[in-house]
Amino acid sequence: MKKTIRLMGAWMALLVALALPGMAEAHGARDVKVERREFPVRLANGQRYTVVGYLYYQGSLKNRPVQILTHGITYNHGYWDLPEVDGQDYSYARYMARRHYAVLALDLPGTGESDRLDGDALDLAESASALHQVARHLRATAEKNTFETLIYVGHSNGALVSTFAQAQYGDAQAVVNTGWLNTAHSVPVESGTLLEFLNQGPYIRIPGELRSALFYAPEYSHPELVAYDNETADTVTRGQYLGLLTMMGSPESIPAGDIRVPVMVQLGDRDLVASASYAEAEAKMYPRARSVWVDTLVNTGHVFNGHYGKERGWAAIDLWLRLVVR
C-alpha cells in the first residue's frame, strides 16, 4: 500500500538539521573530480547524435548511487554547477559529489555541448528518449558495483522530461522533481507573450529581464549570481518549448501516475512558475508511487540552486535519498 509522506515545518527542520553535521566534513574533503562524458543516442529520424554530460565524483565510482540531472529551459548542465559568489558555493553537483554520490549533469539534446538538430523536431518525447538511452548506456558500460542505482533529479522542464522518461522506461530507482507542478496552475505571464517567442525560429532565447522576474526572488538571491545566470543562458528548441506550454495547459497529459518508484517534490514558496501553494494537490499526482515526499522551501524562487537557502534544499534531497535508496 502506497504511503504519502509530507514533512514540513519543525519536523523537516529537525530532520535536515540531523543531516547537516557532516556538511563541514564533506566540504573539506578532497577536490571533486569532473569528467566530460559523451553518450550516443538515436532519435526518431534514425540519425545518431551525441549527448554530453559532466560526471562529478570523489574517490572511486564503486558503490556510488548516480544522480542523473536534467536542467530546465534556458539552461544546460551549468544549472547544476553554478559558480561560487561572494564566498557562497552554488554548485549542487559538487555538493552531492562530496556527499558520496556520482553526479551526471546532462546537456539535453540541443543545449550546451550536445548536438544541435532540428529545433522543431526536438520535442519532449525525443528528450525523454535521449535520457533513457543515456541511462541505459551508463549501465551497459559500467563495471561491477558501478552505476547500479540510478536516480533522476530534474528541475522545471527537466523534471517534466525525467517524469516522461521514468513513466515510459522505468530506469531510475527514485525520482526528484524540483520547481515543477503536474497540478493545473497559472503563471504570471501573458499567454500572448509566451506565444510570441515561437516566432523566433527553431531555437528560442528568453529575454534576461523576463528570466530574472520569473526565476528569482531578488531579496533572497545575489545580484551577481542573477547577472551570471542571464549572461550564460542557453536557448531552447521550439519543439521543446511548445511541448512545455502544451503540458502546462493540459497537465492531465503528463504520465506522473505511471511512476511507481519513490518520488520527492520540492516547491519554492516564492516560485512564480511552480508555487508551493499547490503542494497539497501535487502530493496526489503520483498515485502509484511507492512513496511521495513533498517539501516546501522557504524564501526560494524558481531557480532553487541560485537562492541563499539552497543548501537547505540540497540537504533535504540527500536525506531523502539515504532513506529510500541507500
From TrEMBL:
Keywords tagged on the record: Hydrolase, Signal
InterPro entries: AB_hydrolase_1, AB_hydrolase_fold, AB_hydrolase_sf
Entry-linked SUPFAM superfamilies: alpha/beta-Hydrolases (SSF53474)
Signal peptide: 1-28
One Pfam family, short name: Abhydrolase_6
Residue ranges of every copy of the AB hydrolase-1 domain listed in the record: 68-306
Superkingdom of the organism of origin: Bacteria
The UniProt record lists the keyword Lipid biosynthesis: no
TM spans (from-to): none
GO MF annotation: an example: hydrolase activity
PANTHER family per the UniProt record, alphabetical: AB HYDROLASE SUPERFAMILY PROTEIN YCLE (PTHR43798:SF31), MONOACYLGLYCEROL LIPASE (PTHR43798)
Protein name: Alpha-beta hydrolase superfamily lysophospholipase
Originating organism: Archangium gephyra
Upper taxonomic lineage: Bacteria, Pseudomonadati, Myxococcota, Myxococcia, Myxococcales
